[in-house]
Design goal:
alpha/beta; Isopropylmalate Dehydrogenase; 12 strands; two-stranded antiparallel ribbon; IsoPropMal-DH-like_dom; oxidoreductase; IsoCit/isopropylmalate_DH_CS; isocitrate dehydrogenase (NAD+) activity
Length: 320
């Protein structure tokens, strides 16, 4: 198993080593190799990622990623968008789990307003929102495959946006073909209702930017962005990262919350066929939090490393 490790920038360099430590604890025999991507590389080379780095990522069985800081460059192309497009990581899966909350937000990951098709005009700037039938069907099919006994919620603005009419139709078709119950919600009302009545929801599928916003907002239910992992899945590649950014305001202070990165490592394990180990990692995180081992964003006083050590100890008790 080849795992590319990409700490990136800011707190990514602090939380990714903790998540990597979880993987090494359970699988010391895997081939872990670093890949430099982000602001530091941009400062040295003028580009945040190059062809060598993309090749290294494409050769990995899985990628563990931290966060990147956006350089002050008007021609900068988002590293994440480039990786998602080049590796065709079309399904962004963001689980939001905590007491009374078990929601999985499935976001189309390569189209929409993050299509990367943009241009400037005198006095204006344009971004093309791309929604295709192929892209809509495959993300809806993926989401329907995650439903276990509940229903699929389809989030759109089909009452206003024609491209969402297409997405809605494809999502309904795929849900019905899979024999999955479905409901539709307008995304603005859905954002509010998820926060007010989270127990009503299981799997939600939506377009790119809507899923980005909805999943970040849903972080409120479980303690913030420091708690949210994500998986970027394609037919040939898989990429796992915490939802949070590089947080330069707290970088280097040793207080960044590593839970999202650790849970991203658990998603990597589950995707790679190690469901029992993934469950053990999540249970170890839960046990550490219940015991009060928490970083300051959760009201605690533990450091990033101390949270990691608490989780490692509980994994050893459960698995080793």
């Amino acid at each position: 198993m080849k795992v590319a490790i990409v700490p990136g920038d800011g707190i990514g360099r602090e939380v990714v080593p903790v998540a990597e430590g979880v993987l090494r604890l359970l699988h010391p025999d895997w081939d872990y190799y670093p890949v430099e991507v982000g602001y530091g590389r941009w400062e040295r080379c003028g580009a945040a990622i190059g062809s060598e780095e993309m090749r290294a990522l494409s050769e990995a069985d899985a990628i563990l990623f931290g966060a990147v800081t956006t350089p002050p460059d008007p021609d900068y192309r988002s590293v994440l968008l480039q990786i998602r497009h080049d590796l065709d990581l079309y399904a962004n899966v963001r689980p939001v789990r905590g007491p009374g909350v078990d929601i999985t937000i499935v976001r189309e990951n390569t189209e929409g307003l993050y299509s990367g098709i943009e241009w400037n005009l005198p006095g204006s700037a344009c971004t093309l929102r791309v929604v295709t039938e192929r892209g809509s069907r495959r993300i809806a099919r993926f989401a329907a495959g995650l439903v276990r006994g509940g229903r699929l919620t389809i989030g759109t603005k089909a009452n206003v946006i024609k491209s969402d009419v297409l997405f809605r139709r494809c999502a309904i078709d795929e849900a019905e073909a899979a024999g999955v119950a479905w409901e539709e919600k307008y995304i603005d009302a859905l954002c509010l209702d998820v926060l007010v009545h989270p127990a009503r929801y299981g799997v939600i599928v939506t377009t790119n930017i809507f899923g980005d916003i909805l999943s970040d907002a849903a972080g409120y239910l479980v303690g913030g962005l420091g708690m949210l992992p994500s998986a970027n899945i394609g037919d040939k590649h898989a990429f796992f990262e915490p939802v949070h950014g590089s947080a330069p305001d707290i970088a280097g202070r040793g207080i960044a919350n590593p839970v999202a990165a650790i849970r991203s490592a658990a998603l990597l394990l589950a995707h790679s066929g190690y469901a029992d180990e993934a469950a053990a990692v999540d249970a170890a995180v839960d046990a550490a939090l219940v015991a009060g081992v928490r970083t300051p964003d959760l009201g605690g006083a533990a450091s990033t490393v101390q949270v990691g050590e608490a989780v490692f100890g509980r994994i050893r008790e459960r698995m080793l």
